Prior knowledge:
Helix content: 25-40%
Order of helices and strands: EHEEHEHEHHHEHEHEH
Strand order of the largest sheet: 3-2-1-4-5-6-7-8
Shape: globular
Oligomer: single chain
Number of helices: 9
Amino acid sequence: MEIGIIGVGHIGKTLALKLAAAGHNVAVANSSGPENIDAAVLETGAKALTAQDAVHNKDVIILSVPLNRIPDIAPLLASVPEEVTVIDTSNYYPARDMIIDNIDQGSVESVWVTEQLGRLIAKAWNAIGSQSLEKNGKLSGASDRIAIPFAADRDHDRDITKKLIEDTGFDAYYTGSLADSWRQQPGAPVYCTDLTADEIHYR
């Protein structure tokens, strides 16, 4: 697939490395320009581009930025076709993101993101720690393979997200619609607990 990743912090960098190693064509971008992207992010074949180029002609766009930066991303995605799958990895941390009233009053984080972007998304890789994502992936079929929960409303978003999670070395566990994605927000039983799919099923 043609994949653009916006944000190369711990999660974005690891996704770039793993997805490029899995054979996808990966472009990465940050807020300060491609010349400022660490060469280590590109070791398995990802390419550093401007943000505008990183979202152009892509099958999938992964947003790996702090949640409070999501509104700034909306103009970047304005010309991206609706059929493109956008996957958000962010979480709401009030100490970092400042207070977001709608979320504090009960709005599901992923629903808030769709409202800011004006489009549907999938939610994934937000309920696993960066160190675990980097180091604990295993081959498909391993009995103790960690599962990553994900949410999506559209069938093709669900199918694409599931495949990409598996390509990063983890089982994919569908938790339901975006409205139900509170199940994988910070504080939920599956958040950063490195459970198998069977263990998630009983949480």
